[in-house]
Amino acid sequence: IIYHGPWSIDNPFLIPLGSTVESLGMSELRNMADGRGEQRGCCRRNPVCCGTTLILVAGFSFVVAVALGATYHPLRNKVDEIIKSKVAMTPDSAAADNFLSSKAPLYSTYHFFDVKNPKAVEAGTEQPIVEDVGPFKYHENRTKFDAVWNDDETEIEYKLNTTYTYASGLDPKRNITSINLPLIGVLTTIETFENDPDLDKHLRELLDVLVDVIDMIKKGLFPNWEGLFVTHTVEEWLFGYEDSLLKFLNSLVPQFIPSYVFALSNRSAIEFPNRVYTGKGDLSLVAQYIEWNNLTHIDGWGTKTAGMINGSGGYQFPPGVTRDENITAFISQLYRSGYFSYEKDASIYGIETYQFGLPMAELSNKSQDPGFYFDGPSGVLNLTAVYPQHVPIFASKPHFLDGDPGYVANVTGLHPNRSLHDSFLNVEPLTGAALRAAKRIQINLRMHPNSKLPDIENVKEVMLPVFWASEEGSLTLSLANEFKEEVYGVEYAIEGGAFAVIGLAGLTLVVCLMCLVGLVIQQQRGRGIRPLQRHHNDERAPLLTPASSGEEININL
User: Fold this and answer.
1) Which phi and psi (to 5°) does residue 443 adopt?
2) Quick count: other Cβ atoms within 10 Å of Cβ 284?
3) Is residue 373 a contact partner of residue 302, using CB atoms and an 8 Å limit?
4) Dist CA 73 CA 67 (whole Å)
5) What is the pLDDT tens value at each position of the chain, 557 positions in all?
6) Torsional sign, CA 148, 151, 153, 155
7) pTM metric for this prediction
């Protein structure tokens, strides 16, 4: 504390607050004047030692920070490789448990196109007017069972049981009017084989019966004939109803028509064995199909490559997915494989994913394998060759999204919307797991005039939408937290620890540098204080003598 008052001190120095000149001993004043006063603190007693210590601590902190910064990415990459290796679906692994029994809820939501003017369409006087009726939401329970690994655990074979239970939405007992699909199937069979000279004699027998039945319908002799359009409930359309035409054919040729129940789906169905790679030894093959439904190739397509079963079922892809690549999946509803391309990044409960979508090229008649029989405007997939009874079924995106504008123009009541009607996959890039997915497919029937039957001889050629379905699944919040803990737990620990140590080392370095700067400043100030001048050597002289100005006091030693 510098003493200020009516008197000042020549060559001022620090005097404890509350001290008087008389209270300071002569020796203490002399020592303070010579700069030899007591210095408190280690840095004042030995500044060189203290500075060296600070430099060593700062240097060590710097080395620690640099070392951790240099090793962080290699260490994290090593952890990533360990995480990827856990994707292999070997026996007793978490990956196998998740594959065989997924915890994420899966739903199938249906929308049916109710034809509002069936008689006018049949007469050819109007284009179809349809109403999108839905949603009808069903819980889809998939159970994989009878799993068997091969000897080296590189392949797993299993069976799949799928059941549907109504969950929510509109009343499934609501009536829907749509095209008579069994009738179209019979007419298509006749058209396909009636002029085939090499037709098997058994198939020729079936063909003759079909021709006779159509002739009965034409003459009005078929009992309870419903016509080109029929009305049934949503439950009946989905899971089956007794069809009068099929029932009559079953009575005539049961060896060809074993059932008279027509259904677009099955309430419960068990597939033939499927076989996929586990990823052991080669993670690029994880979950990729070897056989689907006991098939290694889809018969009916026009080329060998078109019939190949490539990719996974859409739930798991090889780990290390990048934005630059396309991912391949086998779409069982379409009897073919397709690829998805990167669209954008998306977050699911804090988990960063890459969103992939079905590109327009997959619906283009110019870029497709000719074996897929693209013979019309882009936007639809021709399934006639592989669909049962060769019914002229075509698949598209709902409401013909990304299709030729003519498809929408020829049917009143369609309103394509990308957010509602497009398919996508959200894939976590490190593990390759699909954490959210929406597979949206519309089933259409190509109508065209047929002179064999009055009901259809006047219709206009049109791609008539029958229904569209959205199969969707996503992690819940609790499953997302489990995923983050299982997959990112070690990574988070390493990342948090590394940043904590680097932060502490950086803070220590900053504190040491501040102390060094303070020490240097202190030493510079110390060298700048001049010792008090000795005016008298006689200790008996008065300690205080008035200054000439009368305004100051001099301390003389």
Assistant:
1) -105, 125
2) 12
3) yes
4) 11
5) 344 444 444 444 444 444 444 444 555 545 544 544 444 555 555 565 665 665 666 566 566 556 555 554 565 555 556 666 688 999 988 889 989 988 889 999 999 999 999 999 999 999 999 999 999 999 999 999 999 999 999 999 999 999 999 999 999 999 999 999 988 888 888 887 777 777 777 778 888 888 888 888 888 888 878 889 999 999 999 999 999 988 888 888 888 888 889 999 888 888 889 999 999 999 999 999 999 999 999 988 989 999 999 999 999 999 999 999 999 999 998 999 999 999 999 999 999 999 999 888 888 777 777 888 877 788 999 898 887 667 789 999 999 999 999 999 999 999 999 999 999 999 999 999 999 999 999 999 999 898 888 888 899 999 999 999 999 999 999 999 988 888 876 665 555 555 565 666 566 656 666 666 766 676 666 655 444 444 445 555 554 545 444 444 444 44
6) negative
7) 0.75
What b/e readout covers 190-210, taking b as 16+ CB neighbours within 10 angstroms? Answer: beebeeeeeeeeeeeebbebb
Give the residue from 253, 271, 249, 165 showing the smallest Cα distance to 203.
Answer: 253
State the first-to-last Cα distance of the chain, in angstroms, to the nearest integer.
22
If residue 498 lies in a helix (H) or strand (E), which one and from where to where? helix 477-527
Please give the Cα distance from 288 to 279 (Å, whole number). 9
Residues constituting the chain: 557
